[in-house]
Structures are given as structure tokens and as C-alpha cells.
């Protein structure tokens, strides 16, 4: 069987050398696989003491095990992320980055941890332009070493654990080592992702993941990942200045079109802890990551305009879609890594500014890559018995990232989140342009939401690239303005308008929307924990492998 698979892959690329997936959004194959034949159990749960929602039940189980051993949400989050890197390698892992929003019950403070990947110091500003100085096609840019940013996930996990964890670092990694060593049954989304994947096997015809395609019913063992877990359980910095770091640099720089990643880039990477970016709105206060994530800012802008439309009795699907398109326009125009660009956040969140600009806004159109919108990412949330809450979104960007594999994990292609060109047609610099040491703009939005009295109300987040902003906003609009139940809202059709293009999941919704609409899968992975009188209620999106567990 293995020989047949290799022969098929070779046939495609030898006899069709120009074969590629169209970068045009209308023809691009959906990168976010909708899970098939899922057991619908464990998608909703009411708990009294603690609760976990993750993208995969192996991770949910291990995270819950950590809580039952006396760990808190931070301990559980470390174990969950390391497990996801094993069982959901197409979405997140040690080779990527993350944002964490953490609510500390004792101090009543909310923080965010910035583990976003960073461009190498010596990266070429024109790395995503072809020889004619035109933007490269998405996959020409994304596949290989040129798209890899310095991974931030592990340093972020270690930092938050050193400040708030209860259990020992090595103790959290031990159950993941056991799972990696003994093997796991490949989840539906991993199997489906591999069945669709072409670039990975073109780059690595001997990939260990061919074993899953051969016999998906068998347990899969990733020995390299086991070794990596053992190393980082003893000294996590070996990832940044030891053997693993050297292997990462070697892998990234193996081709001439590399982005000049160096050992120094890894040695000098440290995640940042900051006060969460919080916005007090009419009905709630939302807290989440600040720049270089655009998520909290963009969702705040959306909800402010939704509140305005609600008061004007104009809150319908067509106006909601206009708000989304307008917000993506503002995102492109104003936002980037604020360590490089001065940004007037107060101005772009001002109610008067938003309403005036929205009232004169025309349909914003721009050519886009579908993978730029619908990236491969993972989200999980936890609340423990002490009242602490954590909301985490992590990613390696598109499915299997750069497709570069080393030490048991895939390296990200997050640098494709930069603007490919340095300047627009008028000669103005793009704020989110490529620069050495800069972090690309993200849409990851791990939120923690409080009621009007400042009490914890819910956590929410989702994978989905730029569509994350739309996915989360839809749920919040449904719940707070249309008074829909959370389960009903998650099961409703997703919708998205970005750069003048409108997408929905079903024909029924399409009929109520003005203009051209494309029906396609929009595979969110919403994870929610909400506090109600009956307890903590967790919800996992039916579109993915996610589950809920708790006590």
C-alpha cells in the first residue's frame, strides 16, 4: 500500500509538473477539514467544579487528568497543547505560536501572553515577491523555509506555567510522553487532512504520516516527538539553544530560498506577558490579546457597530455582513505589530469614528488567497474549581504549516500573514509588511468575557484564520442580541464577508442575502465555556473533533 501511495504522488508531480491548487478563492480547496462520522457525545456538558473544551478528546482527557491531580487551568493548558501537537499536528504544535488569555480569580486580573512567531532578524523584505516583483502565489510562498517564523508556543507555555502553575513542569509532560510512546488512534480530521494533502508528501516522500494513510485503523507512534518531549521536560530551552534549535535552523535553511533563520533568532525569542486588552461594551466586557493580534480589537469594533444597528432597528444579516467587511477593511488599513508601527487604538475604537466611517463605507474589494482566510489552528478553554479561566488559540498557520518536519513536529508558515508587498500602488508602505524581528498580524481571538458587574461570564474562541473574527462575532451577536441558545447558534450556518466576497454554509441563508453569495464549508471550531446558574456549561463545535469534559 505504501508503494502505491508513493507511486500515485510521483505520478501527479512527474506527469503534471505544473499541478497546483488554484490560489483563486473561488476554486481553492477548503483547507479546514470538516470532521466526518463523529460521535456526537461529549459536545455539550454541564459541570459544577471544572470544565475543559478542546479540539480533540485525547487532549481533553489528559487536560482533565491534570486537573484531577490537583493542577489548575495553566497546568492543564500545558498538557493539552503538547497533546494537540501530537494528535492534531496539522493545526498547531511546538513549531508554531499562540496567544493565551488568562483570568486569575484571586487577583481578579486578566492577562494575555504573546507567543506569536517572529520574523528572523535578517529576513529579506522581498521574500514573498517573484523575480518580477509581483506577489508569489500562496503555496509558492507558504511551502518551505521562507515562511517559517521563530516558534513561540513552548516558551509561552513555560512562562505562564512558571508564574501560575501548581504542578511540576515534568509532571505535566509525563502523560503526553506516555501517549506518544504507546501510540494513538488517528483522529478523523488528521486522516482527512492527510488524504487531501499533496505538498507534504511531495517534500517528504518518506513521511511517517504515510503510515496513517496505509492503515488509519492502527495506532500511530511518533518516536521523534517522544524524544522531543523528554528533552523539553528536562530543559525546555534546549528547543531554543540546543539540539532542537540547531535542527530547526538546518531544516529551514536547507534550500536557497530560505529566510535566513539563525540560532540567534531562537536564542533571543522570549514570549511577553501583558495586561489583557479589555473593552467595556453595552452588555459585556471582552478581554483578549492586544496587537499583534487583531482579534479583540476587530471584535470590539464589530460589537460596537452591532449595538448601533440594534438601536437603529437595522440589525439584519445584510447589515451584519457589511459590518464584517468594514471591519476587515479597518484591520488592513490600521493594524500591525505595534512595536514597529504607531497605531491610534483609541481613535479606531471610538464610537463616533466607527459610526461615521461605516455610514460612508463602500464595498471593500481585494483579491485574496483562501488559505489566508481559513488557516489551520486550534482553540481550547478551561475553568478550574478555584475560578481561574484560560482561553488559548494556537496555530502553525495553514494545514501542516510549511510542511517542514523536524524532531516530531511541523514548522509554521506564519510569515505568510504579512503583506507580501512592501508598498501599495500609491507608494505608501503597508503597515503589516515584512520586516526583520517583526510579528505578522494575527486574527486569533482567545477571549474571556465578563458581565456588567465584572464577574466571569464565558470564554470563547475558534480556529479559522481571518474568519475567526467572523465566527466568534456571530456567536456573540446571536447570544446577546438575538437571544439564541449557544448550542443552536453553533449549529447555525456560519457566514463571512471579507474583501467584498460573501460566503455562507447553506442555501437557506443565501436566499436572504443581497448580491453574489458562495455556499461553501466554513469549518469553525468554536469552543465555549459559559457560567450559568446550573453550573459551567461547555460547548464544542460539531464541525470538528472537539469534546468537553469536567466534574
As a percent range, the share of strand residues is: 15-25%
Q: Rough shape? A: globular
Taking all Cα atoms into account, the compactness measure Rg is: 22 Å
Number of strands: 19
CATH fold node name: Glutamine Phosphoribosylpyrophosphate, subunit 1, domain 1
Mean pLDDT: 91
Class by helix and strand content? alpha+beta
Instruction: Write out the strand line-up for the largest beta sheet, numbering strands in chain order.
Output: 1-18-17-13-12-7-6
Report on this model:
The chain is α+β, with helices and mostly antiparallel strands. It has one domain (2-22, 51-254, 270-275, 367-550): Gamma-glutamyltranspeptidase, small (S) subunit (Glutamine Phosphoribosylpyrophosphate, subunit 1, domain 1). It has 21 helices and 19 strands. The strands form four sheets. A seven-stranded antiparallel sheet has the order 1-18-17-13-12-7-6, covered by helices on one side. A hairpin with a 5-residue loop joins strand 12 (447-450) and strand 13 (456-461). The longest helix has 18 residues, at 317-334. The protein is globular, with a radius of gyration of 22 Å.
